Amino acid sequence: IVHLGGVEHLSDWAEDVPATARLLAERFWPGPLTLVLRRGHRVPLETTGGLETMAVRVPGHPVALALLSAFGGGVAAPSANRFGSVSPTTAGHVRAELGDAVDFVLDGGPCEVGVESTIVDATGDVPSVLRPGGVTREDLQAVLGRPLAVHPTSQVRVPGQHPSHYAPRARVVLVEPEKVIAEAERAQDLGHQVGVLVPPSFAAAAVKAHAVVTVPGSTAAYARRLYKFLREFDQQGCDLIVASLPVEEGLGLAIANRLRRAAGPRPAE
Question: Which of 42, 129, 135, 157 could in theory staple to 150 by disulfide, Cβ–Cβ 3.0 to 4.6 A?
Answer without folding.
Answer: 129
